[in-house]
Amino acid sequence: MKFMIGFQVHPGKQHEALSHFAQMTPEQDQADHGSNIKLIGRWHDIIRRRGVVICESDSAEAVSNWALNWNSIIDLDIAVVLDDKETRAPVKERAKRSVSNARSWALKHGFSRLGGKRK
To answer: Which of 27, 47, 70, 114 is deepest in the core (most CB within 10 A)?
Structure first.
């Protein structure tokens, strides 16, 4: 699963958060989120004290545990997200069912395929 994590640094905690983050080595950063999470990208809006993380994991528990590492200085909003390909598949399937259901309903209620009610 892919997760989008929006974050907002608590008021008055920006320098603490940035200092802690800036001092982390790549190894510490990896240990912070753990081996069950693949970090895809992280973007920071340091002026507004917010940012977004995109990661991938089979474990919502691992993502929640990572969030707990930071929740004393950062509010986090976590959502499961889909990429374009993953989004298209269920939408196309629903559209097929919807067209099929509409067609069945119309025929059942006496409507012809050309749009008029049969006599």
So the answer is: 70
